[in-house]
Amino acid sequence: MKAAVFLLLTLLVPAYHTGAQCIIDNAVDLKVQSAISSIVSSTLAKAKLLCQDVSARGALVSCPAGYKPTSCACGMACGSWDIRSDSTCHCQCSGIDWTSARCCKIGL
């Protein structure tokens, strides 16, 4: 009987303390998530998409520093283009007379 009571106590006492620790951990997690959510929400509310158009003669046009091309357009009815080096629009048809790019960045 003593062994059964001892065994029962050794199983219940750690389980009780573990449950208390989980409650504290959950409360801390909720506070941290709430703080992060508030910071992210206020930052995103201030964010704006800033865009400008850039064009050049020939098959290549580069966006200004800090901007990324989001789309390209080509002269001579060429619809084949790609973005090179994460900042330059390249028209793939031969004899292109002009290329333009829509360049954007996120401003805070």
UniProtKB/TrEMBL annotation:
Keywords: Disulfide bond, Hormone, Secreted, Signal
Main location (coarse class): secreted
Molecular function via GO: hormone activity
Gene3D superfamilies linked to this entry: Resistin head domain
Coiled coil: none
Subcellular localization: Secreted
Family matches, as Pfam families: Resistin
PANTHER family for the chain: RESISTIN (PTHR21101:SF12)
Family: Belongs to the resistin/FIZZ family.
Name of the featured protein: Resistin
Species, as recorded: Mauremys mutica
Taxonomy of the source species: Eukaryota, Metazoa, Chordata, Craniata, Vertebrata
